[in-house]
Amino acid sequence: IEAGKMELAFDDVDISGIVDSVLSTARGLVKDKPVKLVTVVEEGLPIITADPTRIRQILLNLISNASKFTDEGSITVTVRKQTSVYGKKELYLAVTDTGAGIAEADQNKLFMPFSQVDGSPTRKVGGTGLGLSITRLLVELHGGEIGVTSAEGQGSTFWFTIPLPEGSEGLDNPNLMTVLAIDDDTQVISLYQRYLSNAGYDVIALTDPHLALEEARKVKPFVITLDIMMPDFDGWKLLESLKSDPEVAQIPVVICSILAEYDKGKKLGAADYLVKPILEDELVGALSKLRPPQY
């Protein structure tokens, strides 16, 4: 496979969901061994721009390799945000095993085409496998890096990075008590303010949807509530704009509408969908589900 002949289908990706999906598949690889699969995933990870199928392939390939050389102990998948040596925000993903480890002399050969690690206790490099070279290619097509840290008899950590979109840095700590409420009806906005202030939220009212994207970038709210039926304005298009903007794409959007188009809302990226008239318990409950556990 050559880089120029492989196309990626980039999309907004929830990496936590990808990890859960891959782990469900990977459990079958170690079901007959005393090996525990462990995840250490940082909370509040931002949405990344990636090919979800390829990210699954990368992770599953690394876990599969780890399972071949780990007879007991654990395989741990770690995901966290970090800053690269160049000062750029990136996602760090690693698969750590308690297997045989790899000799330092062999580590540089691992990601070369037509090279693989054999199944001997010392994990020698050789053979004609394509797994790790393809994995490296997929990572590099995402703009990331891949590497390994290992020592014989001490297990291995295969890691890779995926760049985070420009502007996502500002959402590391969004204001967890601020709600941006977008609705052309001032009475509805007043109702939301009363509902949510009782629960401790600060509601920023916006009756002009044309200013929504600019306001979301400026405020960085915890959540956005969005009316769909507004005069001379397409709420669905606004939802698409919010979910495609790298600065605000990971801010949850709760649709509050007289239209009961749940499936369309979910398909376009809404975190929840409430149909008017909305009761106080419904609105507060929907927002509570979206907040991190520690809050």
Blueprint of the fold:
Blueprint: E1 11-13, H1 15-26, E2 35-41, E3 48-50, H2 52-68, E4 73-83, E5 89-97, H3 104-107, E6 116-117, E7 125-126, H4 131-141, E8 146-150, E9 156-163, E10 175-182, H5 186-198, E11 202-206, H6 212-219, E12 221-226, E13 229-230, E14 233-234, H7 235-244, E15 253-257, H8 262-267, E16 272-275, H9 280-290
Parallel strand pairs: 2-4, 10-11, 10-12, 12-15, 15-16
Antiparallel strand pairs: 1-3, 4-5, 5-9, 6-7, 8-9, 13-14
Summarize the structure.
By secondary structure, the chain is of the alpha/beta class.
Please, could you describe this protein's structure?
By secondary structure, this protein is an alpha/beta fold. The chain has helices at residues 15-26, 52-68, 104-107, 131-141, 186-198, 212-219, 235-244, 262-267, 280-290, and strands at residues 11-13, 35-41, 48-50, 73-83, 89-97, 116-117, 125-126, 146-150, 156-163, 175-182, 202-206, 221-226, 229-230, 233-234, 253-257, 272-275. A 5-stranded mixed β-sheet has the order 2-4-5-9-8. The longest helix has 17 residues, at 52-68. The chain is elongated, with a radius of gyration of 23 Å.
How are helices and strands ordered from N to C? EHEEHEEHEEHEEEHEHEEEHEHEH
Which CATH class of the largest domain is shown?
Alpha Beta
Name the poorly predicted regions: 119-130, 169-173
Secondary structure: number of strands? 16
Largest β-sheet summary: 5 strands, mixed
Q: What's the CATH topology label of the largest domain?
A: Heat Shock Protein 90
Number of helices: 9
CATH architecture of the largest domain: 2-Layer Sandwich
Radius of gyration: 23 Å
Mean pLDDT: 85
Shape, per Cα inertia axes: elongated
> What is the CATH superfamily label of the largest domain?
Histidine kinase-like ATPase, C-terminal domain
State the share of residues found in helices, binned by percent.
Answer: 25-40%
**What separation lies between the terminal Cα atoms?**
47 Å
User: Major sheet: order of its strands?
Assistant: 2-4-5-9-8
% residues in beta strands: 25-35%
